[in-house]
Amino acid sequence: MAVEQLTIRLVRSEDILDIYSMVCDLENCKFDRAVFKSIYQKNIASDNNVYLIAIVDSIAIGFLSCHGQHLLHHEGMVYEIHEMYVDPSYRNNGIGELLMNGLKQQLKNKNIKSLEVTSNVNRELAHRFYLKQGFKQSHYKFTQSAP
User: For position 76, which CATH number holds?
Assistant: First the structure.
């Protein structure tokens, strides 16, 4: 695949079906479409979030979602990558790195304190990718189902 065929851009409302499909593949399940749509619309409308999509020849092949929030213990704005996906048939072609570069470009003028990512312990290839991108493994994340 030639890189010049690739476009990285901010998602639009009409990208919802592509994003839905990629999130379902990422999490290996089907989500309720109505709930997904509601959350998607709210998230892409927020000035504190960045959602990017990678497109080759009019086909969505990847995306990245990143949410920002003001945190007391950072004394400022922190962004965290929540989802990142590249279609398996397009992996190892630098798409993830291009999505990361697009994100960094979007965050460039936002005066952020840090960029963070959490990744499932089973996603070892993703861990290596994030380390290669300059992230450091500095925290543990603990989760609990809603009471």
Answer: 3.40.630.30
